Structure formats: structure tokens, C-alpha cells
Amino acid sequence: MKLFSLATALVASTVGLTSAAPAIVWKNGSTSGPSHISEQINTRSLMASTVHTNSGESSSALAAVVFLVGRDADGSEGLGNLASSGKLPGVQEKYGSADSVHHHVNGVESSRTVARDARSGGFEGKVVEVSLSEFNRKLSSIAQNIAESEGGEKVSKVEQKRRRDISEADVLIVTVSPNEDASAIDSSIVSAIDSSAVRNVILSSIRSTNEVKRARKLAVVDRFTKSNGSNNRSARASSTSRRLEDEANNENNQNGENNNGQEAVEGIYYVNMTPNIFAGLLFFFMFAFTAHLGLSCMNMIEGQDVYVKKMPHIGREV
Questions:
Q1: Residue 47 — φ and ψ, nearest 5°?
Q2: 20, 25, 91: which is closest to 52 by C-alpha?
Q3: Which of 118, 1, 141 is nearest to 61 (CA)?
Q4: CB contact at 8 A, 65 and 189
Q5: DSSP letter string over 290-303?
Q6: At what angle do helices 209-238 and 244-266 cross, to 10 degrees?
Q7: For residue range 140-196, what is the model confidence (pLDDT) as tens digits?
Q8: Using CA atoms, how far apart are residues 136 and 256, in angstroms rounded to an integer?
Q9: pTM over 0.85
Q10: Which of 91, 184, 201, 286 has the lowest CB atom count within 10 Å?
């Protein structure tokens, strides 16, 4: 039943909405069932409401761990495929103890954008992007109460700086590839949920390639519509300085123009090239064809093959 609930929630999030990215949130100490939230929320608001610092907690504890499942080879969303195929049994068992399930989260395009939104959401801690193996090493170091930077093996300065940043991090953005071992992914997520050193756990997935393209096209159309509306409002504001007799006629004309403009915006379609670019391509192909034809004709001109110093007399055969 939990398998069906988890798979159904993820499929409804990714299929029902064009720009949906699901996010399951576990909070340390929360025992109530998950609350399903279908309202649209962006990544910055989600991180701001989930990630927070608490002075009473240990300094070694993590404020949050965000697991981001990457895309499949065909560009589709990876978390829904893992859940529907039953490769995350531990996560399915923990699904009933989740705090909330967000079905529509905007802005989950990569681990870098999620880390940027976490930093800009008012969180003063340190946010670091890590891999699954680095997270497991961090969690084991917290359990053993030792620093990651310490150790007997010799590592490079870059690796030392990397380990120091991870040991000082408050929020970890774990990038998970769907091609990795599913049992390792499942055990890492369950370990983060059960660990007392992790206050919040977020499981989400990077949106598919098609969803990102559709969202960007909708953003372009929305920005174009807003810019056109602002131009119409500025035109109406400039007409207030005219005489009162002409203002009524101008308002009627402007209302008609605005209606025509809105109808024109509704009928706008975005193409791959402008008329000028298309005309330039046609001219280039015509020029290339003409040049090839001219050079071919010049190459067909032939002259005499034998040259003599004294030409034969007129009327005499050669």
C-alpha cells in the first residue's frame, strides 16, 4: 500500500503538471502522517521553510540533507522511475512518517540552482554540493565524532579543502545518479532519515528535459505579455495631458487598440528564425548556386592543345 502511495504521488506530480517536481520532506521528531500540498511553491520558499538553524542543536548536526535524483539517459525524471519499479523499499517504508509531500516545486533544475536558492533564502549556514559517497563518509564521521579532514592517508590540498568544506557544512545537496546502485541510494536516504544528526531530509528529483523546455517557453511568453501590457499602460498615461474633448475619443481608440493588441498576442507563435534570417539564408544559397554555376561554365571553356611557331598558309590543310 505504501509502495502504491509513493509511486502514485510521484507519478501524479510529474505527469499532472507540466513543470512539476515532487519533494518529500522528513523532519526529525515528526511522527504524524504526511500532509499533501498541491499548491505551487518554488525551491527558495521550500528551503526557507524547511532549512533553519537552531542554537540548541549540536554544531556537528546537519540542518538539512537534500537528495536530488538526476535524469535518466532519455532525459526523463528519475525518482518516479525508481519508485514505480520498487527499487526504493526503505524509502517506501519511511513514506508514512514523512512530514509533507509537495507535488509542485519550481526551480529544481540542477543541484547548483538548489544550492543557490538555499543560500539566498536567508540561511546563514554553509551549503555544499556532495556526491553519495561523500555524504556516507560525512554521516559516518558524525556518528564516530571525528572530523573528516583528519586521517592518516596523504591527500592533495584540493582534497583536504574539499573535506574541510564538507565537515563544516550545515546543508548538503546530494547529487544522486539513477544509474547508481539502487540499494545504496535507498540505504543512504534511510540512514539520513533515521540519523539524529540530521534535522531535515528532502527527497526530490531534477525535472525532465521536456518539462524544463516547456517551463522556459511559458516564461518567455509570460514576459512578452507583461512587457506588452506595460507599453499599453504607458501609452494611456501619456494621453492624460491632452484636452478633455480629445481624451474621450483617444480613450475609445486606445481601448480598441488594446483589444486588438491582446488578440494579436494570443495569436503569436514563436518560430525558429526571423524573416531577415530566413531571407539571408535564401540569398546565401542563391549566391552559392550562382557562383558554382559560373565556375562550372568557365571550367568548360577549352583552348587549343598544340601551339606552333609558324601558322599554316590560308587554304592549305594542316
A1: -70, -35
A2: 25
A3: 141
A4: no
A5: HHHHHHHHHHT---
A6: 170
A7: 887 666 544 444 556 678 888 888 888 888 888 888 888 888 888 888 898 888 888
A8: 65
A9: no
A10: 286
Residue 298's φ and ψ, nearest 5 degrees, are -65, -30
Residues near 214 by beta carbon (within 8 Å), at least 6 away in sequence: 18, 19
3-class SS at 101? strand
The length of the chain in residues reads 318
Chain mean position to CA 26: 24
Query: Nearest to residue 265, comparing CAs of 214, 231, 215, 216?
Result: 231
Write out the H or E segment, with its range, that includes residue 91: helix 89-94
**Rounded mean pLDDT for each run of 10 residues along the chain, 318 residues in total:** 49 46 82 80 83 56 86 78 83 86 82 84 80 86 59 70 83 86 88 87 84 77 74 56 57 55 51 86 96 93 78 66
Provide CB contacts within 8 A for 13, sequence distance 6+: 20, 21, 22, 80, 103, 104
CA distance 44 to 115: 9
